[in-house]
Amino acid sequence: LDLDTARQQLEEFIPHVRNMSDNSIRKMAGRDLMRFKQFKKQGIPVKFGRFSQKENDQIRKNIKEFLSITGIDSAEKLLFTSRYPEDKETIHHLKAEHLFCEKLSEGIPRPWRLIYYRARKMFDPNNYKGRYTKEEIEKLKKYHALHGNDWKKISEMMSRSNLSVAMKYSEIKSAINYGPWSKEETQKLINAVEQVMRKRIEMEDANSLSSSEKSHRDLLIDREKLYQKLPWTEIEAKVGTRYWRQCKQKWTTILTNKMTKGQQLYRGTKGLQAKINLIKRLYEMKVEDANEVNWEELSDTIGDVPRAYVQAKFYKLKVSCVPFWQKKTFSEIIDYLYEEKLPEFEEKL
């Protein structure tokens, strides 16, 4: 396919494809377009967002089968070939001969690049090394001073994953405040969110509004956009004194207070009723994975609140009420809450 045709056909499956580079379009046309068309015939849409347990299991299966076919002795060698320079040439040859791209993405309706990143995260032995020691934090500061944001190089020097070192540096790079939010910090957060939203909407409107219309246009935003996929590391930099996760949690609190007009929706009998409604609705959905839950739809079980608020309440519910919840599947957690805790809550109410 020529570039324009490839972009046009991919746009059916990935709306933001027009913002991608020509090189990315070429790669997606080769690795993804035929797969997307096959999934469409089966009535399966292309997915984004968090990977489900079923998708993670499919990645494990695909990797295991590829290792078996090629005789490569570990997933780390397959996915982090640069760590094994003596085997590099052989592994690259085997990956090309046995169609690694096609095998890895088999049965998963997502762009290949996202599947590959997910596999690397799952199989990187450097990804699960626990808390950073004081010595590691000092090393991280030193390496960043030398190499900037070259996270690949720094990750190799520290034997930690790229994502881990990048996120840790984001956390330690400035004096982070862990106390209550001041009025000044809260206002900085609100201003930062407004700035990124304005920037996003201006980009969307660049081709659809004249300059005179833009200058007189108020900032009108669908409510859902206020709490979905905001660039939190960018917002963190604008706030300056808070880690990105703190910014995200505070923003959810601000939205919840605005949307509920400050009412305490999760206290006393209202709180019990909300737990009961939440358990019942989740049970009725009969989904196998948390990623398949439409949290937006569930928000009215507690009140007019952001989806992150509902997710946080569910997390608190399973942690406090379900023994050994880490070892249970999502559906087992819901069944336990429905069978064991729901009667208790209803009696208490």
Automatic annotation (TrEMBL):
Record PROSITE patterns: HTH_MYB (PS51294), MYB_LIKE (PS50090)
CDD domains named among the record's database cross-references: SANT (cd00167)
Domain called HTH myb-type: residue spans: 124-161
Gene Ontology CC: nucleolus
GO BP term, pick one: termination of RNA polymerase I transcription
Gene3D superfamilies the UniProt entry points to: Homeodomain-like
Molecular functions per Gene Ontology: chromatin binding
Residue intervals of the Myb-like domain: 124-172, 173-255
Name of the protein in its database record: Transcription termination factor 1
